[in-house]
Structures are given as C-alpha cells and as structure tokens.
Amino acid sequence: MAIVRASCADCGDIEITSAEVRVRVCVDDNAGSYVLRCPRCSMAVARPASPRVVRLLVEVGSPLTMWRLPDELSEAHVGPPLTHDELLAFHHLLETDGWFSRVASMVRG
After folding, report:
1. Please, what sign has the CA dihedral across residues 7, 12, 16, 19?
2. Domain edges within the chain
3. Separation of CA 35 from chain center
4. What is the dihedral of CA 67, 72, 75, 81, to 10 degrees?
C-alpha cells in the first residue's frame, strides 16, 4: 500500500493510503476519475484523472471500477423541454392519491 498525495478544497494538501482512493473509468469514453474522502474534514473529493494517473493509482493498489454511461443519454428527446411550472405541477401530482393511474392514463392517451 502506498501513500498518495491529493488536495482537498477545504484542507489543502493531504496524504492518504492508495486503498482509500477509488479510481473510476468510463467504458464508453475512457474518461477516468478518482474519488476519496478527506481524512481531516471528511469531505468527498472527486477529480478527473488522465490515463497515466489511473494507471499509477491502480498499480499502487487503488481499487478500480469500470462503469458505463446511462442509456438515457443516447435516447431521442422529442418535444420541448419541461418548464419549471410543468415540473412543479408534476411534483404536486405525485403527492396525490391515485397519481400512478393518472400518469398512466396521460401516457396512454
């Protein structure tokens, strides 16, 4: 296990073990990042990581997670975007009894 130097926005430079740094790589676009929790303030720290940084962190023992972009990103979006008022109306609808039936009838009709 190696010591890794990182930076926290609140605490500045910190040192943690490689096991405390989680590395993530997106299978779809090969974008890398790492995430850790600051040992001083417990704030989550997430940063992009180049392929070189990903390789180095994994080599010194940081766990690697591969993930995929959500399928929703490749779906066709038809129609205008929701307005704030429409979103608020939908929120209010979800607070009513029988909301699921009402939404299902809107989709069918």
Report:
1. negative
2. 3-69, 79-108
3. 10
4. -140
